[in-house]
Amino acid sequence: MPSTLIALLHGPDRPGLVARVSGWIFEHGGNIIHADQHHDHEAGVFFQRVEWVPKGDTHAADAADFRTFAAGLGMQVQVSQSAHRTRVVLFISKADHCFHDLVLRWKAGEFAGEIVAVVGNHADLGALARGYGLPFHHIPISAETKAASEAKQLALLRKLDAELVILARYMQVLSADFLTQFGRPVINIHHSFLPAFAGGRPYHQAHARGVKLIGATAHYATRDLDEGPIINQDVARVTHRHGVEDLIRKGRDLEKTVLAQAVRWHLEGRVLIYGHKTVVFD
Amino acid sequence: MPSTLIALLHGPDRPGLVARVSGWIFEHGGNIIHADQHHDHEAGVFFQRVEWVPKGDTHAADAADFRTFAAGLGMQVQVSQSAHRTRVVLFISKADHCFHDLVLRWKAGEFAGEIVAVVGNHADLGALARGYGLPFHHIPISAETKAASEAKQLALLRKLDAELVILARYMQVLSADFLTQFGRPVINIHHSFLPAFAGGRPYHQAHARGVKLIGATAHYATRDLDEGPIINQDVARVTHRHGVEDLIRKGRDLEKTVLAQAVRWHLEGRVLIYGHKTVVFD
Amino acid sequence: MPSTLIALLHGPDRPGLVARVSGWIFEHGGNIIHADQHHDHEAGVFFQRVEWVPKGDTHAADAADFRTFAAGLGMQVQVSQSAHRTRVVLFISKADHCFHDLVLRWKAGEFAGEIVAVVGNHADLGALARGYGLPFHHIPISAETKAASEAKQLALLRKLDAELVILARYMQVLSADFLTQFGRPVINIHHSFLPAFAGGRPYHQAHARGVKLIGATAHYATRDLDEGPIINQDVARVTHRHGVEDLIRKGRDLEKTVLAQAVRWHLEGRVLIYGHKTVVFD
Amino acid sequence: MPSTLIALLHGPDRPGLVARVSGWIFEHGGNIIHADQHHDHEAGVFFQRVEWVPKGDTHAADAADFRTFAAGLGMQVQVSQSAHRTRVVLFISKADHCFHDLVLRWKAGEFAGEIVAVVGNHADLGALARGYGLPFHHIPISAETKAASEAKQLALLRKLDAELVILARYMQVLSADFLTQFGRPVINIHHSFLPAFAGGRPYHQAHARGVKLIGATAHYATRDLDEGPIINQDVARVTHRHGVEDLIRKGRDLEKTVLAQAVRWHLEGRVLIYGHKTVVFD
Asked: What are phi and psi of B230, to 5 degrees?
């Protein structure tokens, strides 16, 4: 596959936007290989993902020119290059299922990015990370050390030029300050239930309540206390025959697949964030 | 199929319960055709559904004897006869999707019961109900008339000897008093979302929030304000390509299938209520 | 919603197609409200569905002009108007589940078309069809009368100007001659199993084989003996607890939802047929 | 959890079987903790899985006695002890997704058994196997060496006292002779499509055919050329937006989860083989 440019646009809808965008690419000698747009008629907003092969070796210049062009249309735009391998850092704790799953998918070539480091607030998975050839950074965190630990994490992320953080069952809440200072996307995974539960030991609560479905949700972490824009969700059916251990095991499987799909979409430039929601060009 | 007895039992677990129950049936000349039991080891509770063909025409006597026997084991028990056709009353409002679906499934022979009447707080679906050959009772209800209207409903249910009420998108909350006085099961269906929403126009809220899954939950109505024991749940996947109208249409389909399955299980004596949850012997 | 034009295009891929198409619409004063395209890079084929509001009341003229324009691009094209209500004829036999489901969805406003008549090779469902206010035509068919009966069907379809035939569990194979002479789309629904079975009583065979999934497939009927282009498929999980009757019931539910979704997509101009396959712009 | 006995029974159905079995256990001081039975009324066959805690340390004696007892009822029976860790050997080739998935689930404690060795017809995954602390045996196989290679495999399996072989994308057909001589269960995983395809490169064929669902099936390998008794199946939805690579990736995910679930059920004594089918007591 030749190297492409991928643009994610959104802004006020008006006639001619598709023609203007595709016309610009055609006039610059580019060849569109995927384009998907969405018109939110209620909100009057236009969304587009367009991927094209530029003429010759003009990726950087075309990306800059396209940004100017799109801004002139009143659009917010992000342009990335398919040849660019997004630098990913995993934040983990003690649970290893999402960790193994993400690393193995990365090694199998499923992700358009590179895992460059692993950060753990516990040291338990350090040997496994190093076994995969990944640098492991143990940064313990407690109520008292939170600010200092987050400062260490931020310094590391800057040094690594991390472009995406994945909370792979990290089990710690990132402060609003951390998210602001990092200023780049953070993807989180958590369990979801119908109906929802507050408090700890959610699978025990779900079992006690006799729920028939358990779920998982992958979303961007945001400064607000509520969960951020949802990228992906899925559920599995359970019955009274499943004990708490079965629910936890099924939950692990959901967390793995839901998170991996969200990460894959993000790395392929398929997720456009708009207010509190996402548009996923899958 | 010969006529059977169906018992739903639960109580403190202890060794020998399965042997005692199956032994009793064998000694009384019965032939077990289905038996399913569940031991909740955490709570120390035994649950069983057992269905058998009694020897000869002894159904009523055997049912009574079995109740005494099970009580002697410390079990709560319900015994029903498969030949008995549970008398069902539908409560509806203006939406017709669950109404049509339930009536057509009943006519197709999918339900072990008889729909004996339809009650509407609006008259809109009266002609359709009568077109299906079903008596339709228009009992309007408003904040002022609620007590009087519920009294009318209760009188009707008693006159009809109704054994199950299905709220097929009835859109009114039954009072705790109504539920107590009726004293028999009431099954309700409502939409469910991940995350949950409060307030009106839930599909509009879900669309605005960008949810990726919409769901429906069938449950028994209870006196408590929160929803009662869950019988069945299901979800459907949605994307930004689906408008609010699509979400509502998909919601209708979920409501139909989730409610119909819950009703089928209830009528076949497969749902055992235990505290706030159900054990479904599907 | 204003009335729109919907074009389905496909042909040899080359740079600038999206720009040309959207440019043409813009220049003619149209406003694109949905556009979705797909590039099959292996086959070198471009597929597009584009829907737009023309300027003023120029639908018919713009449709004709667009056809000429698209042909000039080397594209095969179909253009329809959203205001046009496709004329649909249902072919049924004795099974009524898909029949009721389609008619009720039509009455609920789910379909962009009109059911104008019902044809049955048995008279069983005639009264129900008339109860829905639909003309019912009883055209019996047997091995001996097949040619004559199909001639009657064709005459009726021509008289009604039928644009789509839905085989809603019609249980008869249409001859290649019939399909050629009708010359318009015919959608069929049938059960599907993993692994596949030949011969009669498929649900009995599936039960005997212990399959864990049963399925349904909606496809266009074609002259070839094998099944035509697939529009939609779905499956349901079954266990040993499900008897043959349960499999048949679950199969009915699958057939209803899979067929209804296929019909909805077809009527909204979302299904592009390409060789033996479809591209569904859902 | 105390150590239990697990019996899988089947044979001609007749009244009193449940009472006889549970009575036997009760009389021997055992405590049933799970019991599930199924009556195939058409075939007249009784199936049961019963799990109980024997009185004291009498597992081996009780297992032997129960076998005699069940044979006396005309039942075929298998009795295993939950404390026994089934000895599992993985057969692999070059694909690593099922291999990693099974080993990591085993290490996470999801399987009631022990992986004791890995056999590969290629050496590619040897280092990874050893990295997990597993003995790896490279036994190349070709058309000419097939008999000799299978003899080596059989010798190894005997030496290891292997009780289950899992073909984790092994890509070689085991000879009928191998299966007879091994005489113990072999579980295989393969892709499944609706409709089915013959020949190579199945995902390419599925893509060319425009299938909307891809699937995977886990089954016992049998001497017959057709596939053996099905243990588990699942499907995933695909659209024209998914290229062949996406189908292959989704197929890998299906293969992993379908195979792991089948293995988990087998190791927990939940799968009863009966003729060409299975009864899974999940």
From this structure: -80, 130
Of the candidates C96, C104, C241, the beta carbon closest to that of B100 is on C104
At D33, is the secondary structure helix, strand, or coil?
Answer: strand
One fold for A5-81 and A86-280: no
Phi, psi angles (nearest 5°) of residue A75:
-100, 145
Q: Do D110 and A249 touch (CB under 8 A)?
A: yes
Helices (H), D162-271: 176-182, 202-209, 244-267
**Out of B17, B26, B36, closest to residue D36 by CB:** B36
Give ipTM to 2 decimals: 0.93
* Distance from the C172 Cα atom to the nearest Cα atom in chain D, whole angstroms: 21
Question: In this structure, is the dihedral angle defined by the CA atoms of residues B22, B25, B31 and B36, taken in order, positive or negative?
Answer: negative
Q: What is the pLDDT of residues A262-282, one digit of tens each?
A: 999 999 999 999 988 899 998
Locate tokens 């790395």: which residue?
A: A267
| In CATH, D86-280 is 3.40.50.261 | no
Which residues have C-beta within 8 Å of that of residue B202, sequence separation ≥ 6?
B191, B193
Predicted pLDDT of residue C108: 96
Number of Cβ within 10 Å of residue C196's Cβ equals: 12
CB C254 within 8 A of CB C266: no
**Distance of alpha carbon C23 from alpha carbon C145, whole angstroms:** 54
Residue boundaries of the structural domains of chain B: 5-81, 86-280
What's the whole-model pTM score? 0.95
Q: Which residues of B touch A194 (CB under 8 A)?
A: 192-194, 196, 215, 217, 233, 235
Q: What is the pLDDT of residues D223-253, one digit of tens each?
A: 875 678 999 999 999 998 898 999 999 999 9
Q: Give the type of residue at A255.
A: E
Give the relative orientation of helices C17-27 and C59-72 as an angle to the nearest 10 degrees: 150
Q: Which CATH number applies to C5-81: 3.30.70.260, 3.90.79.10, 3.30.470.20, 1.25.40.80?
A: 3.30.70.260
How far is the C-alpha of D20 from the C-alpha of A189, rounded, in Å? 50
Reference A113, options A162, A184, A63; nearest CA is A162
Catalytic-role residue among B224, B226, B246, B282: B226
D191 forms beta bridges with: D216
For residue C276, the 8-state DSSP code is: T
Q: Is the peptide bond before B54 cis (omega within 30 degrees of 0)?
A: no
CA atoms within 13 A on the CB side of D120: 19
Taking CA atoms, what residue in A is nearest to C32? A15
Contact A276, A229 (CB under 8 A): yes
pLDDT at B225 > cutoff 70: no
> The tokens 């799953």 sit on which residue?
A101
d(CA C109, CA C22): 31
Contact C30, C54 (CB under 8 A): yes
Q: Over 80: is that where the pLDDT of A32 sits?
A: yes
Cα B153 from Cα B131, distance rounded (Å): 22
Buried b (16+ CB within 10 A) or exposed e, B138-169: ebebeeeeeeebbeebeebbeebebbbbbbbb
| D222 within 8 A of D183, measured Cβ to Cβ | no
B51 closest CA partner among D37, A193, D171, A200: D37
Alpha carbon distances (Å) from D127 to A238, D96, D130, D133, D135: 38, 12, 5, 10, 10
d(C-alpha C122, C-alpha C92), whole Å: 8
Average pLDDT, chain D: 93
CB C106 within 8 Å of CB C115: yes
Single out the residue of A149, A182, A190, A180 nearest to residue A165, CA to CA: A182
Neighbours of B272 (CB within 10 A): 21
Catalytic residue flag (residue B226): yes
